[in-house]
Amino acid sequence: MSRGDKSSYTDKQKRQAEHIEESERESGRSKEDAERIAWATVNKQDGGGKKSGSGRDDKDD
Fold it and tell me: Rounded to an integer, what distance in angstroms lies between the CA atom of residue 46 and that of residue 33?
């Protein structure tokens, strides 16, 4: 993969990106464009690579 560190993504996210990239390539997109679209789609769906449990809890207790 040409840009960024993908190690924080789950195996499922990596598989999804591969499938999206293959589909984009079949549609005639360049390797670079297909990869960019694939990872942008995964990021949009899942909010990026890191899935930590930390952060703010918005519940009112």
Answer: 20
Contacts of 29 (CB under 8 A, 6+ apart): 37
User: What is the largest distance, in Å, between two alpha-carbon atoms of the chain?
Assistant: 53
Per-residue model confidence as pLDDT tens digits over 5-24? 888 899 999 999 999 999 99
Q: Please count the structural domains in the chain.
A: 1
* Cα 51 to Cα 47: distance, rounded to the nearest angstrom: 9
Structural contact between residues 42 and 16, judged by C-beta atoms closer than 8 angstroms: yes
Is residue 3 in some structural domain?
A: no
pTM listed for this prediction? 0.70
If we measure between CA atoms, which residue out of 46, 23, 44 comes closest to residue 35?
23
